[in-house]
Amino acid sequence: MSSPLLRVENLNKAFGKVVTARDLNFTVEAGVLTSIIGPNGAGKSTLINVLSGLLPADSGHVYFQGEEITHLPTHRRVRLGLCRSFQVVNVFPHLTVFENVEIPVLAQMRKAAHLFRPVAREKAVGQRVMEVLERTNLAGQANGTASALSHGDQRLLEVGIALAAKPSLLFLDEPTAGMNPVERVDILRHIRRLSASGETTFVIVEHDMDIVFSLSDRVMVLNRGDIICDGGPDHVKGDRQVRECYLGEEVVA
């Protein structure tokens, strides 16, 4: 039996008296599209921040592909293949779509330090950029500026920037935030397609329940730093504790 892609053991994180992760233990298997849900303040984004290295854990251990990364800085985790996106769109608005993806490709191919070598000579870089843009359905807009993209396409570009690093595991923090219903359906379709390719495993923090239950293979529910339910969408939908604390339903025994 293969080892999990990510393993978290007894992870703790608190801000004063506010506990956002309390002795968390879970694994993420390669190829399983996982969503993390929970009410505001449940600890979802904090968990991603700790796992990606943006925040330090108070205690516990994080293993990625069998290697302990608990104390590794973010850039080292990215090198190993663990990446993330943010709630707020994080692209270079005045650069072209191509150039936005070219920057992380140069870094991933260890060519970013070649300051005085024309990038145009790096044919392998250009090919890799176009591969990423094809995967995110943005190849037709490669020469346009990022600021001219719709909000939904800017989100896809952000996913493309993350994919340029060739991650084995990619955390998406509220990828549909600020989108209209059409854009949400579109990015849902793209995430499902990218996940099905098997190149990258996705873990998503999301509030839109329609997206969570239609997209996910697995749903993990956080509440005040604890995992209160973990399983398939149908199992989570029917869980009494989830319905009471997250869906706002009072369940009568």
Describe the overall structure.
- With 253 residues, this protein is α/β, with parallel strands linked by helices.
- The chain has a domain at 6-89 and 165-245: P-loop containing nucleotide triphosphate hydrolases (Rossmann fold), CATH 3.40.50.300.
- It has nine helices and ten strands.
- The protein has helices at residues 44-52, 74-80, 97-108, 123-135, 151-163, 181-196, 209-215, 233-237, 240-245, and strands at residues 6-15, 18-28, 34-37, 59-64, 67-68, 82-84, 169-173, 201-205, 218-223, 226-231.
- The chain has a six-stranded mixed beta sheet, with helices on both faces. Strands 2-1-4-5 form a four-stranded antiparallel beta sheet, with helices on one face.
- Strand 1 (6-15) and strand 2 form a beta hairpin.
- Helix 3 crosses helix 4 (123-135), helix 3 packs parallel to helix 5 (151-163) and helix 5 (151-163) packs parallel to helix 6.
- The model has no long low-confidence stretch (mean pLDDT 88).
**β-sheet strand percentage:** 15-25%
Second-tier CATH architecture of the domain at 6-89 and 165-245: 3-Layer(aba) Sandwich
Radius of gyration: 19 Å
Number of helices: 9
What is the mean predicted local confidence, pLDDT? Answer: 88
Question: Topology, pairings included?
Answer:
Elements: E1 6-15, E2 18-28, E3 34-37, H1 44-52, E4 59-64, E5 67-68, H2 74-80, E6 82-84, H3 97-108, H4 123-135, H5 151-163, E7 169-173, H6 181-196, E8 201-205, H7 209-215, E9 218-223, E10 226-231, H8 233-237, H9 240-245
Parallel strand pairs: 3-8, 3-9, 6-7, 7-8
Antiparallel strand pairs: 1-2, 1-4, 4-5, 9-10
